[in-house]
Amino acid sequence: MAASWTVNLEKISRVVNFGLPALTLVFFLAGYFSSFYFHFLTVFFLLMTLINIFYRRVQKDHALLTNFGWVAQGRYLLESIGPELRQYLFTTDTEERPFSRVERMEVYRKSKDIDASSAFGSQLEFDGGEYKLRHSMYPTLVAEAEPYTLTFGEERGLAEAYTITKPVMISAMSYGSLGKNAVRALARGARKAGVPMNTGEGGLPKYHLMEGCDLIFQMGTAKFGCRNEDGSLHEGRLREIARLPQVKMIEIKFSQGAKPGKGGLLPREKITREIAELRGVPMDRDVISPPSHVECTDPDATVRFIGRVQDISELPVGIKFCLGREAEFRALVRAMARHQIFPDYIALDGAEGGTGAAPKSFMDDLGIPILTALPAVHQILKEEEVRDRLKLLAAGKLINPGKQLIALSLGAQAVYTARGFMLALGCIQALTCNRNTCPVGITTHNPALQRGLDIEVKSERVKNYVVNLVHDHYELLTSLGKRSFRELNEDNLLLPTAAGTGRGRL
Ligand SMILES: Cc1cc2nc3c(=O)[nH]c(=O)nc-3n(C[C@H](O)[C@H](O)[C@H](O)COP(=O)(O)O)c2cc1C
After folding, report:
1. Quick one: which atom of ligand 1 is closest to the CA of 397?
2. How far is the CA of 497 from the centre of ligand 1 (A)?
3. HEC profile for 372-392?
4. Which end of the chain is more exposed for a tag (fewer CB within 10 A), N or C?
5. What is the DSSP letter of 219?
6. Where are the beta strands (DSSP E) in 53-159?
7. Whose CA is nearest to atom 17 of ligand 1?
8. Centroid of ligand 1 to alpha carbon of 418 (angstroms)
9. CA pair distance 505, 503, nearest whole angstrom
């Protein structure tokens, strides 16, 4: 019978406990009798011995250190580099979260403009738990497809209506959560690609403006950039922002999928003097925005506030939220109908959405995922007979063209992605956005780390990502036998059937 072999930590630590002082003594004697240079090793092992004694006899916070001394540190070390080990060595191409290597590779290859074809067959599931697109036996031709356009504000006959020509936009990420090079690379890439970029809720710093792209100014619950002392709207500042030629739309953020019910969170580590001044906040603590807008206490007040922002800005005004309760949303829609005030768009964020920083339980356990929320919101708007009064956008891990077309078939008219664009910038999913230590210089203000993010190179990647996404959108659209994005609907989807997967997964 084969002997079972297990690592006996206690035995190893006994060897270490005995070995460290023994080596100290050996090198001391060697230094004394042979060469003085051995004393360097004497000092080294003496320090190790003393630290080991500290771990085992003095500190009381960590049972593992008390029991195993230095050996336990080895475990902590392995634990700290576990994500990297798993990412590079042990996880399969489809296992990683939030984005598998297969999903990320597609974005990397699109953004580097290299052949995005794969070989042998799909690595995804075909077990009925996923949405699939239904192709047609009679595909149409890309050359015959109607070019995509979507005009925000046309329902209100706005002079400043805003038209996009690609069904994908850069979702909100503030300067603060992102470093300045990342903001500039995204902004330059947005200009080259001809897509708008959302500023996120951190106000409107110069980095968004200096690259000349179209901007959607986001007003979060803290209203950075346009707030009064008491947190209410500073109309004059909003008016000034709205008059900037680059600002094409205003977005009032009520919540985001990664932390619905909570305001924005910028950890202390990421607050530079510039950001503190920009937002009017202290540098010595996390910046936590209020959970809601002071003006928006019920559906009527919320709708009146939307109308006020529309009047002040004279621009298309959207609202962003993650769906919690359908009944609350229906009540809001009815208030819109009562007041005849409709936002120009709703940006629906799924619970699976990303963030620079959020409490873990909010990320994991709160909010409705996009594939459940999107058809529900689309349906409520239809039932209340107001579907044609506004545009509907969706976000939540929609980083690949197929997933984006699925969202467009479930009622969305365009998609937002944040992390898709982070991956295009070279994000390696190190999951350290909240620590100011992003190894590729995207979510950090450390100049040494930002150095690696070349604005020109990465802006090309952003552009390529958009160009190749849109190329695939048209290819997929025509394979469904459609000629226009307006023809997409649930009929061109195979809905998930497997039990236990809810509305299914992407
Ligand atoms: C680094 C980072 C910062 C973000 N900052 C904001 C923000 O300021 N305002 C906001 O509404 N959403 C913010 N989001 C959420 C995104 O805009 C988006 O709604 C969400 O990540 C879903 O899109 P995705 O799955 O394509 O990333 C942030 C997301 C990330 C990853």
Report:
1. 25
2. 30
3. HHHHHHHHHHHHCCCHHHCEE
4. N
5. E
6. 132-133, 150-152
7. 172
8. 5
9. 7
| Both tokens assigned to 212 | 């000349």
Say how far apart CA 452 and CA 182 lie, in whole Å: 10
Domain ranges of the chain: 9-80, 132-494
Task: Tell me the whole-structure pTM to 2 decimals.
Answer: 0.88
Stretch (H or E) spanning 338: helix 326-339
CATH superfamily of 132-494: Aldolase class I (3.20.20.70)
Identify whether 98 is preceded by a cis peptide bond (ω within 30 of 0). Answer: yes
As for ligand 1, residues whose beta carbon falls within 6 Å of it are 171-174, 177, 200-201, 218, 253, 256-257, 264, 320, 349, 353-356, 395-399, 417-420, 433, 443
- Which residues lie below 8 Å from residue 248, measured CB to CB, with a gap of 6+? 160, 162, 196, 214, 215, 216, 315, 316
From 256, 293, 323, 368, the mutation candidate for ligand 1 (largest count of ligand atoms within 8 A of CB) is 256
